[in-house]
Amino acid sequence: MEYRFKKIGIIGKFGAPTVGETLLSLTRCLLEKKLELFLDKDTAERHPENNIPVVTREEMGERCDLAIVVGGDGSFLNAARSLARFDIPMVGVNLGRLGFLTDIAPAQINAHMEEILRGDFIEEKRCLISGSILRDGEYISKGAALNDVVVHKLDIARMIEFETHIDGEFVNRQRSDGLIVSTPTGSTAYALSGGGPLLSPTLQAIVLVPICPHTLSNRPIVVPGNSKIEVTIMGPSGHAQVTRDGQSNETLVAGDKIVVERYDHAIRLIHPPSYSSFQVLRQKLGWSG
What is the mean pLDDT of the chain? Predict the structure, then answer.
């Protein structure tokens, strides 16, 4: 049989006890179909029993026409940031708690992979955002995020103070525990816990959600996806930081400007043909229970 995808990269979750078993099940399924497999270098170091060629993320992006992430949403976020610029379709096998991004259960690998490999799937394009730190007129760091860029206080019981501008226009100055700048994908993550709205995942928009604001009239704002958002730290230095997707942290000082805008690349997210975003919300959030 002629399959849609022939060179497949596999990435496994770090430290999950069930990853090894699921990886073996997945690779067995794919090798039976005579497909060419490549294993992520970090995954191979933890699971050397898989006799599959090992590649870096960059090599995977250049050589493969599909990437499969075995893990939870955190593993998928990490993989998406490293592979987005290669325009490689991605699919997730869920070993996490929620699975908003990794929607194939291990028991369904054989059935769903057969569908996807035949070309029977739903594909979405999900936007990413970039978060940069501008200090004394120079950019000192930059990184992509699929869920969110968060400016927040450190581990002390005091608020931070900052100003927000959108496309050069002053929005407000607030004191709060921070600000979540989220993609539609991230609207089901930290932004949701902060009281933000749920956005349709393919919407071209960005949502700003204040974290425990001192003034209760500070509410979430949804802006166009091509907006340029600038958050400037106004208070004392040393007790604020910026986090991307909850996986990278950098300390901020007074005067730092965090610039958030749409990333140059999107990800191509593959779902089984039975996928429904509203069904996922009903299941994960306990609606209609």
Answer: 93
